[in-house]
Amino acid sequence: MRKALVAANWKMNGRRSANEKLIAALVAGLDQAKAGAVDVVVFPPAVYLADVRQMVSGSMIELGAQNVSLESLDGAFTGECSAQMFCDAGCGWVLVGHSERRAMFGETEDVVAAKMRAALDADLSPVLCVGETLEQRQGGALEQVVSSQVVSALSSLSVPMLSRVVLAYEPVWAIGSGLTASPEQAQEVHEMIRAVVAGMGGEELAQKIRIVYGGSVSAANAELIFAQPDIDGGLVGGASLKAEDFLAICRASADQAAVG
Ligand code: PEP
Fold this sequence. Notes:
Elements: E1 4-9, H1 16-32, E2 38-43, H2 49-56, E3 61-65, H3 83-88, E4 93-96, H4 99-104, H5 109-121, E5 125-130, H6 134-138, H7 142-154, H8 159-162, E6 166-169, H9 183-201, H10 203-208, E7 210-214, H11 222-226, E8 233-236, H12 243-259
Parallel strand pairs: 1-2, 1-8, 2-3, 3-4, 4-5, 5-6, 6-7, 7-8
Phosphoenolpyruvate is lined by residues 9, 170, 175-176, 214-217, 235-239.
């Protein structure tokens, strides 16, 4: 049985007072929501990590960073933060390869692979984001694009390292667009990703590794998406900024865990 994971990617949103209200509501709401069945991780902007760390202290909510430097040694890398620094700041998690970073900040597959290694070397668990654009899907390249993203990011990692990775399938056309992959479309890709992982690290690893779905997950669609057998939770952007919506998504995941 894979434990579900629901992650909140705040992106470049939030202010101290709004963060405080949001986290307070999540802490209170999650306690009521038999959420022990689910790992819940928030990814605030780096500048708020120390604040949010204090706010989630003593709760079940874990902390992650939205980005990490591929450099491991301290030094002259203005504006960067290393994986060791995020660990030191209380993070257990980091997002790697989000489509916004690939598209807007030029992160290549080599950069993504280097960030995966930097995170794992520092004992951060990476959430590796992969997904196709609409043009790639319509042009029949979905499988090639997604499997290449998975293989290039994971191929230099040992099986013990791979077992600490979470994968997030996030079709680019569904992120922030209000369009969602249908539960069947998402399941099909998750199953394909699991087969790629099996080819790399064996069937046992493939059955253990968590693959979450991201792309306009909402309180209204979470239940059907999470009911799919290869979908182990969600990476949530927009809806994670509203406590009520994010709590409903966590509950949908916990309910599914209870059923499954
Ligand atoms: C994301 O940024 O990873 C994401 C899935 O965003 P949204 O839920 O807003 O589509």
